[in-house]
Amino acid sequence: MAHAATHIGADRADASVQESLAAKCQENGWLRAGGYAWQDDPYLEDYPYDIREASSMEELRSFFRRGNWAIRQGVVYRDLAFVQQVDGGDEWWTLKKIGDEGEPGDWLAFENCSFGGLSRDRHGFNDLIVGMSAASASECERLEYRLPMLDEPWSLMTACSENRAGDQVECKILESRCGDYAVKAYERPSFDGAMLEISDRASRALVFHDGACDSIVSASGRARDALSSLIEGSRESDGRSRSEAARSRLRSLRDASSEACESSSAINPPSNATGRNGKARS
Questions:
Q1: Are strands 155-162 and 168-178 parallel, antiparallel or unpaired?
Q2: How far is CA 68 from CA 2, 116, 261, in A?
Q3: Which of 55, 80, 114, 233 gets the highest tally of CB atoms within 10 A of its CB?
Q4: Where is the composition biased (Basic and acidic residues) (predicted)?
Q5: Alpha helices (H) in 90-208, listed in sequence order
Q6: Whether the Cβ atoms of residue 159 and residue 175 lie closer than 8 Å to each other
Q7: CB contact at 8 A, 188 and 171
Q8: CA distance 81 to 112
Q9: C-alpha distances in angstroms, 243 versus 230, 232, 234, 246, 253?
Q10: How many helices (H) and strands (E) does the chain have?
Q11: Partners of 107 in beta bridges
């Protein structure tokens, strides 16, 4: 039974994106025209390649939450594409854009995902999509695109910087927060790999950095380990501070007690003081 397509909006993806994705789908037995030879769905040829475009993370999440997707219906967001492989199901062929030639080779297929449940978790959904987009093509092929979950969802930005040759290079930047710390991983135009910086949110002081990360995604994993050490060190420091404060208080109490004892011993008893027997002391 054919299912009505569920669209996120009136705007379809760019024509070159539509065409290159439709061509790429011919490499997928479930999505190619006619499907597998053994499939007997009389409606299979009626399903069009209908690719829409999400302009924001929230729009993408809303799309996946609606359900009842038609086969060959898809959505693109940033450099990612998701095409439904099961009529009325929740199995998305996941691809990353690696070229701009308008050809099937523009797309790297690397994963199959289900989003019905995950789309209800704003934080988890965000970090999964951001990780896929932040990862390089080779990291996606190795399925090494996962970001550690911190207190706040990761954000992905791009900025153009000038390299040593004077060329403008687009660099990716990942940012998040964890407790008292701000985390930033970014690409550098004149160097391979990425830089990781962790700073104190209150003072903005840099408390950790690592310039030898392979990528911003691997830097995020390094951040998780560094944050664990920083937070544990902070707890130990707080414990030492509390212990030192307690010892200082005890010293103050002992000093006050000693002073009181010294003061009391320096006071001479009155001349008419009497003992328990009522006789005057000599």
A1: antiparallel
A2: 10, 10, 85
A3: 80
A4: 233-257
A5: 122-134, 137-141
A6: no
A7: yes
A8: 11
A9: 20, 16, 14, 5, 15
A10: 5, 10
A11: 97
**Tokens at 146, concatenated:** 């996962």
Mean pLDDT to the nearest integer, 122-132: 98
The separation between the first and the last C-alpha atoms of the chain, rounded to the nearest angstrom, is: 118
Assess whether pLDDT exceeds 70 at residue 36.
Answer: no
Residues 231-260: pLDDT tens digits? 888 776 655 544 444 444 445 544 554 554
In this structure, the strands spanning 50-53 and 73-77 are parallel
* C-alpha span between 70 and 87 (Å, rounded): 5
The 155-162 sheet, strands edge to edge: 155-162, 168-178, 181-187, 194-200, 206-213
CA distance 239 to 248: 14
Question: How is residue 87 written in tokens?
Answer: 């009529």
Token couple for 126? 């965000």
Tokens representing 213 are 């990360």
Going from N- to C-terminal start, the domains of the chain cover 1-144, 147-257
pLDDT digits (tens, 9 = 90+) for 89-119: 899 999 999 998 888 899 999 999 999 899 9
Rounded to two decimals, the pTM is 0.78
Burial letters 161-195, b for 16+ CB under 10 A, else e: eeeeeeeeeebbbbbbbbeebbbbbbbebeeebbb
Give pLDDT, residue 8.
52
- Residue 45 predicted with pLDDT over 50: yes
